[in-house]
Amino acid sequence: MMNYHHTPVLLNESLQYLITEKSGIYFDATLGFGGHSQGILKNLNPDALLISTDVDLDAFKFSKKKFNQEHRIKIYNYNFSQIDVITKIESLDGYNGIFADLGVSSFQLDNIEAGFSFRSEAKLDLRMDKSKGVDASEIINSYSEEELANIIYKYGEEKNSRKIARKICEFRKISKINTTTSLAKIIEDITSPKFRIKTLSRVFQAFRIYVNDELGQLEKFLHKSIELLTRGGRIVILSYHSLEDRIVKEIFKYETLDCICPKDYPVCKCNKERRLNILTKKPVVPSDDEIRINYRARSAKLRAAERI
Ligand SMILES: C[S@@+](CC[C@H](N)C(=O)[O-])C[C@H]1O[C@@H](n2cnc3c(N)ncnc32)[C@H](O)[C@@H]1O
User: Fold this and answer.
1) What is the distance of C-alpha 33 from the center of its chain?
2) In sequence order, what are the beta bridge partners of 95?
3) To 10 degrees, what angle do helices 11-18 and 35-42 make?
4) Which residues of the chain are in CATH 3.40.50.150 domains?
5) Would the CB of 37 count as within 6 Å of ligand 1?
6) What is the CATH code for 130-211?
7) How confident is the model at residue 120 (pLDDT cuts 50, 70, 90)?
């Protein structure tokens, strides 16, 4: 694993938006294999500080080794929704920049044991933090047909959610669904070859988002992060599907409002404070060249905002 190569997505664009103070304090919420953290460090002065975290133990261990000679970085194995806890542990007041590159890494997808891919046989788990919560097989083998259909529809945006949920429930009467490939086989059997990969990706994404509560953790992280940005500090988020991107867009937009009173109130009673300026009217997306070199970048969207 020490030789694992990962190409960070939209690296230059992320750094341009993120770094305003070269001796500042920064937070990388999704350390992964350290691609963006390394880029951030390269652009900071010797007296700067970077706090980086990853909920995945393998990513944490890998990056801990990778940066063992670097005194400007502190590495955590915490969920990014605990940014406030990490900040307290470090006795910090806030950050000049907060960055996140959401989702799973290509290592997690390529690593058979991690069980994130439908292409290779592994335990049907899908948790990034294997020490917490329930795994995907428990959900798939115990939830009602309607609950399963709702998860597949809501988090996978898959229109055949009902049909897939019905098949899962028929199959599990005969045998428990405990592996990635047994779930994949059920989906493949009822999907035309043309849509197979897309459908499999959507269903696996749906259960992954659900078991990790990815959208709930993202919301918590964004609200806490805005609280923790110093004035003029930047928040930069890379997302890879519409559900995440919508949350980022809506929370940023809400934070640009200085009043949320109903329109017919003669005077403002809400005391809402405008806290952000949006820096990317439209999300920044990778160039064709970047997508050619790094296929994972194809669906990336970068949104950035500045604390007022
Ligand atoms: C796309 S990868 C990041 C890659 C990284 N930017 C790099 O260049 O190596 C996303 C990483 O975020 C981690 N992650 C996802 N959700 C998380 C969360 N809620 N808290 C902390 N880490 C999370 C995943 O485990 C994964 O390693």
Assistant:
1) 14
2) 229
3) 50
4) 11-107+214-307
5) no
6) 1.10.150.170
7) confident
